Amino acid sequence: MRPKGSFSSIKWKIFGAFAVFAAVMLILLWFFQVVFLESFYKATKISEIQSQAHELCQNIGQPGFSARLKSAAQERQICVIVSDSAGNRLYSEHAVQECAIHRLGPWALATIYMVAEQNDGSYFERFRWEQGGAGSLELGASETGKKDTPESIVYAETVQTSQGRIMILMNSMITPVGSTVETLRLQLISVTGIMLLLAVLLAWFLSRKISRPIIGISKTAQEMASGDYSVEFDGSGYKEAFELSETLNETVQELSKVDRLQKDLIANVSHDLRTPLTLIEGYAEVMRDIPGENTPENVQIIIDETTRLSSLVNDLLDISRLQSGTLKLEKEVFSITGAVREILGRYTKLTDYSITFHAEEEIFVCADKLKISQVIYNLVNNALTYTGEDKRVMLEQETDEGKVRISVTDTGEGIPQDKLLDIWERYYKVDKAHKRAQVGTGLGLSIVKTILDMHGGAYGVESQEGVGSTFWFELDITDPPSSS
Ligand code: ADP
Question: pLDDT exceeding 90 applies to what percent of the chain?
């Protein structure tokens, strides 16, 4: 088992994920709202004033320009002066209290015009007011004054109009954001606390929801591991846990079936071993103790019972080898028709049974001859065991689309429809109380199924109660070997 300590519980993993998420969100908020707020605000303000100037430039001289200028100035809290190249004011709008441009005389305006013209038609300046000072724009005096005094931006743009070349000069205040940043910082600290608390609560809630069904399933699995197959897995809560519990329920059902069948086998095998052994012991003792009982019939009984014992032991060995996967197929080309005839030859002594085989031609297949013979042998044996009073067993060989089908039909009691799938299971017997059924071990059809599965051949059974059963299997037809 792996040490428990090397895994942290789902609760802590979820909490960790939430904490990382919250931390990233807070860092982003911090950067945008606290560190970069001022630069963002200034950049926005500047681009706003530039686009406003641009828009106004395009409308200079048009009817209603004065009204437009007034509303723009009021709306955006900017001072605007429109002047000609000599510095004479054409329009003027005053909206900022501590305006930097309205005190400028024609000479100063003309100077700004000149500077703008030399600078591709625009001029930009940022400056601070001296507290309580007269305050006026001086060219090249940007960023003077104390840090805590309001900052102002001045922007000029020159443009060609029908009235000649003119300049539009604007001034806007930049409100200090220091106090806003402080408020945001305090808010962020509270938000950090709330987010962490929420992360803990959510992690606790989610982990409970996720881990509860898993803990339940794990407890049930422990009960199952201790051998209790009556347990039922409950994974209600969410889809994955539900699917896991459904799979485990199927597994436990299979396990209990195998467990039951295995217990049945032990009972069957011990019964099947005891019966012939008792007979052998009994007959041997009789032959030893009573003169004249040493007859060939009695010896035959001992031989028959020994054969039964060895076939039982062989079945058990076969199934364990086949199902452990250690046995490999040794394929060769052989005549399946010949193989069936060979097997039926073993039954010639059963004169009271009527066994027929109908085949129109000789068919060759490429398969493991020994194992396919075992399949045929098992099917014929079953048919002989379960066939009806008329003791008839019919074998048939048919071909269709490159496949050969061998079927074995008997006239017995048949198999109930709901048992048709179960009979292929290991150790399964339809009617355990039935005397004849006690002949077998319930392994024959499981051996047949495993061998045919290894060959990739189809197989099946059709049965009608009171009429009989037909067991069949199919193999691919091969060309006969060239030598034959
Ligand atoms: P067994 O050794 O008991 O015959 P099998 O695996 O060969 O074991 O068969 C499993 C069960 O299927 C049998 O116990 C029997 O109930 C049923 N079965 C098999 N073949 C036939 C058949 N030809 N007719 C009726 N029942 C059959």
Answer: 27
